[in-house]
Write a structure and sequence with these properties.
single chain, alpha/beta, Archaeosine Trna-guanine Transglycosylase, Chain: A, domain 4, Ribose 5-phosphate Isomerase B, Chain: A, 3 domains, four-stranded antiparallel sheet, 28% helix, GD_AH_second
Length: 502
């Protein structure tokens, strides 16, 4: 995929010389003339900011290219200067496709210099970016109990650790098969997370997701930093919980940050509320960070499998081995069959907000989204609920839903999440989540949500300069600087439910 570059004063921006479309950097009025690399183009109809203008003609039925790849099929003849959107382009996606493996020579030469962050080194070798006490629950019946215990503990033990946080959920009972195992895996993954200096897990007693089975599924938990009990078997669950947290705080408050190389970072890569600028600014910028982290020996993790549909080959051609290629194909095809088996089209995306922001088809959204993975080799594929192993770019099975996929990223081991957005969202997750705006208007309008403005690359700052600034922010965040979501108390989890409820 071609490199993006923009310059101040441009009205439209093209990504790849093969493209049929360019992105409007401001609202374009019918009848005006704009310039793309010396080519004058007369605008044939009003085009909103972030939407596409045709810079080459496309015959009806022909592929429309953006980012050098097809984003859909023209439903009518498209002339130079036309507004290109849902009224004249449709998806090409239909079902499961065939893919051919071809070894690729990949050279990731990104550098991070001498940067290091200050983190908490845990007994299992992982390095956390926070030192918090997490209160988890096996089942939704004690979700509010977990929340109230955390609230009381925060008041009682304020200032001794980075905070006490509950992550309630509604599941853990009346679940079968994958749903039950998903719930168990996600809670176990969170319990082993290096950002938790101590963990309290509450059970009810009669639920499907039994506490003992949950603990047995996570043998790498540090017993010194774990407390658990079944609420049906204690007289006062609040006092029992506070006593457990007091013991955990006494252990965790002795922990100290120490220098750690970038190779110890696990960075989750996520986008939500994308717009027409996401694939031009924020996502390729995050891709630079992913490449820098991977080149340093760290672990960037890409997810949202439905937002790979239509852009699979961008990732598959970077598979480090045939085994990784086959695993990636299996995850992608399984997710497509999940849609088909539920009698849903695989292209039921983008969202209304995405469309309003200029994204026309799932292929266009996906081609913008996968840029968060940069250009590094794909070295590992994880199923939902699994945790990262070897260092390098990883693909994680999870849906596109912001809360579900970000929870999966955290449970997989992400210690910082980079979340790009063109529309904005206040959501935060257990791992510190940096919101990166694709456009400066959003950053100016929602300063309490946005941590970094990627729109600067539309105003003359180079991608390299912006990437250096963003990496500095990632390092500062990993070293303890609060994100906007943390400051706002935005911390949620959501678990993927795909089956029946009893």
């Amino acid at each position: 995929m071609s490199e993006t570059a923009t310059f101040p004063g441009e009205s439209i921006h093209g990504v790849d010389p093969r493209d049929h479309v360019a992105t409007a950097l401001r609202p374009l009025a019918a009848g005006e003339t704009v310039d793309l690399h010396g080519q004058p183009i007369r605008v044939r109809s009003d085009i909103p900011k972030g939407h596409k203008i045709a810079v080459r003609p496309v015959a009806k039925g022909g592929d429309v290219l953006k980012y050098g790849w097809p984003i859909g099929r023209a439903t009518t003849d498209i002339a130079v200067g036309d507004h290109v959107h849902v009224h004249n382009v449709e998806t090409r996606l239909e079902g499961v496709e065939g893919y051919a493996y071809a070894p690729a020579a990949i050279d990731n030469t990104e550098e991070v210099g001498e940067r290091a962050f200050l983190g908490y080194r845990r007994k299992n070798g992982r390095v956390g970016t926070r030192n918090e006490i997490w209160v988890l629950c096996t089942v939704g019946c004690v979700a509010n109990t977990a929340r109230r215990i955390a609230e009381k503990a925060n008041a009682r033990f304020a200032g001794r650790v980075d905070g006490v946080f509950a992550f309630p959920h509604p599941f853990g009972c009346s679940q079968l098969g994958d749903d039950l195992s998903h719930t168990r895996q996600l809670i176990a993954g969170l319990a082993a997370h290096p950002n938790a200096g101590g963990v309290l897990i509450l059970g009810l007693g009669c639920e499907n997701n039994q506490l003992k089975a949950l603990l047995d599924s996570a043998p790498d938990l540090d017993p010194e930093r774990l407390r658990s009990f079944t609420t049906q078997f204690v007289e006062d669950e609040y006092e029992q919980g506070l006593e457990a947290i007091e013991a955990l705080v006494a252990i965790a408050e002795r922990d100290r940050r120490e220098p750690a190389p970038i190779s110890e970072l696990v960075v989750g890569l996520k986008c939500g509320g994308s717009d027409g600028f996401s694939g031009v600014t924020a996502n390729p910028l995050v891709g630079r960070i992913a490449d820098k982290v991977a080149a340093a020996g760290g672990t960037p993790v890409l997810t949202e499998i439905p937002e790979v549909f239509g852009a699979e080959n961008v990732l598959l051609q970077r598979a480090a081995t045939r085994e990784v290629f086959d695993e990636a194909v299996e995850v992608i095809d399984d997710f497509k069959r999940y849609f088909i088996d539920n009698h849903q089209p695989i292209y039921e995306n983008p969202s209304p907000g995405n469309i309003a922001g200029g994204i026309t088809t799932l292929e266009e959204k996906s081609l913008g989204a996968v840029q968060k993975g940069g250009r590094a080799p794909l070295v590992e594929v994880l199923r939902y609920g699994e945790r990262v192993g070897p260092h390098g770019l990883t693909l994680l099975e999870a849906p596109g839903n912001d809360a579900v996929s970000s929870t999966a990223l955290t449970a997989a081991g992400a210690t910082v999440i980079l979340f790009t957005t063109g529309r904005g969202t206040p959501l935060g997750f257990p791992a510190p989540t940096l919101k990166i705006a694709s456009n400066s208007a959003l950053a100016a309008r929602k300063p309490s949500w946005i941590d970094f403005d990627a729109g600067v690359v539309l105003d003359g700052q180079t991608m390299d300069q912006a990437a250096d600034s963003l990496l500095d922010l990632v390092v500062a965040t990993a070293s303890g600087q609060e994100t906007k979501a943390e400051r706002n108390g935005e911390r949620e989890i959501a678990i993927w439910k795909s089956g029946v409820t009893l």
